[in-house]
Amino acid sequence: MKAYLPFGDWSNDGHGRCHRLLVEINSMEDVSLAQDKIRKEYGEYFFYDFADDYCDDSLSYECWKALFDHGIKDVFPAAMVSDEFESWKEIEERVESPEDEYNNFSVSLEFVEQAFIWLLNKFGAHIELLQEDQKIPEINGYNCKGFQNVGYGCFYG
After folding, report:
1. Is 23 within 8 Å of 128 (Cβ atoms)?
2. Which of 12, 39, 146, 149 lies most in the core, judged by the most C-beta atoms within 10 Å?
3. 49-53: long-range pairs with CB below 8 Å, 24+
4. Domain count of the chain?
5. Maximum CA extent, the chain
6. Residues contacting 63, CB < 8 A, separation 6+
7. Which residues contact 25 (CB under 8 A, 6 or more apart)?
8. CB of 81 within 8 A of CB of 114?
């Protein structure tokens, strides 16, 4: 089934910014079970430390450990993590121990999205990111001649 996987304020009850990726999944249950397996292995609050707090675009030591344990370095270039890194060695040097308060460095949204999907898939989520040309079109006045959008006045600020 096709679904949108949100990153950010999906419920729009905070800062209201969210990026959604169109994905193909076998079932919602597979995705939920994959998260349960990750929590069981790496801790109940694992996903709270995956760039999940307002204005905190970093990953905890446990998140890095899970990514390293499952071979993230073999899949993604270090530059995707953040433009401040050229190699995985530089990243590993910053992520040395759970006690190291300096291991919290900024990561890109693209990395968070890709690493999150990749890790969930390692635990059985079966998520396939759909390509841009497979996106579901939005109905609007540009692509549907004569169509009138509504609700603009409901957004303030």
Report:
1. yes
2. 39
3. 50/112, 50/116, 51/107, 51/112
4. 1
5. 60
6. 42, 46, 49, 50
7. 1, 3, 31, 125, 126, 127, 128
8. no
Identify how many contiguous H helices and E strands the chain contains and give both numbers. 5, 3
Instruction: Please say whether the dihedral angle defined by the alpha carbons of residues 36, 38, 41 and 46, taken in this order, is positive or negative.
Output: negative
| Structural domain harbouring 43 | 2-154
Q: Which amino acid is at 137?
A: P
d(CA 59, CA 78): 14
Provide the angle, in degrees to the nearest 10, between the axes of the packed helices 109-122 and 61-69: 60
- Using the 8-state DSSP alphabet, how is residue 132 labeled? G
**Residues 48, 57: Cα–Cα separation, whole Å:** 11
**What's the predicted TM-score (pTM) here?**
0.80
Q: Is the dihedral of CA 22, 23, 24, 28 positive or negative?
A: negative
Residue carrying the six token digits 């999944």: 25
**Beta carbons of 46 and 54 less than 8 angstroms apart:** no
